[in-house]
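hey m, so remember when u said the tokens were messed up on ur end? i reran from scratch. heres the input so u can diff it against urs
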Amino acid sequence: MTALEFDYQIASLRPTLKSFTRRFTSNREESNDLVQDTILKALTYRNKFREDTNLKGWLFTIMRNTFINNYRKNQRAKTSHDDTKDLYFLNVEDTHTFNSPGSNFEYKDIWNHVDSLREELLVPFKMHTSGYKYHEIAEHLNIPIGTVKNRIFHARKEIQSKLAGY
């Protein structure tokens, strides 16, 4: 099948895909996004499609997997959707403050406990909390990656035991 034929067949299945999205969502925008993501993935991974397979079934599988992946991503992010008129909840002033004197004291106290760690645990832990990957820490300190993971684990455990009062 040529690329043009493939594109035409996918375009002709768009209404079918649109109706299939009703199994996943009743929101019109989410439905349109799901169809668009499915078609984009199908066109992107055209070379993975085999001639002897059912194109509609292949597209439905892509759509189902896309929906599941998006759902899981949203669950991890714990996002909320504001369906109110004029997005009222997005415009509500945030009354939380993170600059209270108590929280500043706690922050300093926590880092005092972190800084009191042994040097062999402190350096890998601080590098990891600064965003370094395990393999980067291992290369920088010239130690095995397993040792890096072990030291970070023990640093966390020591900090947790010191902060048991919180």
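this time it looks ok to me. The chain has a mean pLDDT of 83. if urs says something different then somethings off w ur setup not the seq
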